[in-house]
């Protein structure tokens, strides 16, 4: 692995960024679509693919699966989305072997919903030496998720596509990435009804055929949101293009309440900065269409620069405030009240620091914090940011930020 870090010259309170920045394809969409290629008889073409590290890892897993239905242990242990492969592999080959999946450490990320789902669909599960071995010919089942899970919804939806009979998934996640995948699979012979609602009905059937139709990766709404927050913090005339504004509705409504002015186009959002200080707004993370947990750390950076006191209530994960200490070191007034709640008072001037993101989303939040700080900050472990964001330094440089990648 190539070790590098980012060096960022902070702007302080200057609103110096301007220009246009394009949003790339969504990481959390393409990873699942790549996994779904197992359901196909023919070749699938993917468009608008961000060449990020996690996509490379998923490709390596797919190559390994050509030999046998077992996920490469080292890679799967680094990538949460690896679990999504288990659905199509099991449905197509009648067995799959995989380790407990890795990914960002956000607190507990169990896999009980997947295992319960497979059992309900008739599979048998053996756990041996840290590996799960699942076997069985899948049949349709009625599954009610006790809580909403994005990857469990996607995985069981994919498994059900090749299972025998009808599957109903209730209390399913409604993220747009699921809708995008279901829509594509339906054009290739699948029968998935209700994607984007809490109830999915899937009629299982035969193997899918792409017949030359490509999967087009939708724009990354987390990247869109991060750029919006960056523009609100440090931009005076920034246009975000190639995005899907309606996927950012929760963030846009909060930013509007904070006093940020923007114009929404069909696939663009422009921010023109006024002189007034943004007002603090409290945030509560929620499954889509609510405020995404993946923007929680970035929003915390925003709140350090807004006037007043606000809280962030994290309802999805219980280990997602590990950034708070670093922001406090930079001068933020931030207090972790309990594992689900932080309080932030602003505005506070931030000062440059040497940082290292505890997860991929917080890594990007640190780049934003470094941007509004006084002085030159270092954000170590660029890899964790490269996992989800393509060549971020090149794209942010074009807006006028002085950010460089340096090898360690
Ligand atoms: C996905 C996203 C991640 C995002 C998260 C929430 C991918 C690759 N990652 O993660 O970026 O932050 O959705 O929007 O798409 N849970 C269980 N048992 C399970 C599965 C989940 O208890 O079997 C719990 C989790 O601990 C968590 C909640 O369900 O509290 C939601 O997790 P989930 O939606 O599954 O998140 P991920 O799929 O891990």
UniProtKB/TrEMBL annotation:
Q: What class of enzyme is it?
A: transferase
Q: Which UniProt keywords apply?
A: Cell cycle, Cell division, Cell shape, Cell wall biogenesis/degradation, Cytoplasm, Peptidoglycan synthesis, Pyruvate, Transferase
Listed under catalytic activity are: phosphoenolpyruvate + UDP-N-acetyl-alpha-D-glucosamine = UDP-N-acetyl-3-O-(1-carboxyvinyl)-alpha-D-glucosamine + phosphate
TM ranges: none
Instruction: Show the active-site residues.
Output: 104
Name used for this protein in its record = UDP-N-acetylglucosamine 1-carboxyvinyltransferase
* Keyword Amino-acid biosynthesis listed: no
Q: Which Gene3D superfamilies match?
A: Enolpyruvate transferase domain
**Species name:** Candidatus Adlerbacteria bacterium GW2011_GWC1_50_9
Q: Which InterPro entries match?
A: Enolpyruvate_Tfrase_dom (IPR001986), Enolpyruvate_Tfrase_sf (IPR036968), MurA_subfamily (IPR050068), RNA3'P_cycl/enolpyr_Trfase_a/b (IPR013792), UDP_GlcNAc_COvinyl_MurA (IPR005750)
**Encoding gene per record:** murA
Q: Can the keyword Cell membrane be found in this entry's annotation? A: no
Q: Where in the cell is it found?
A: Cytoplasm
Q: Which residues carry this modification: 2-(S-cysteinyl)pyruvic acid O-phosphothioketal?
A: 104
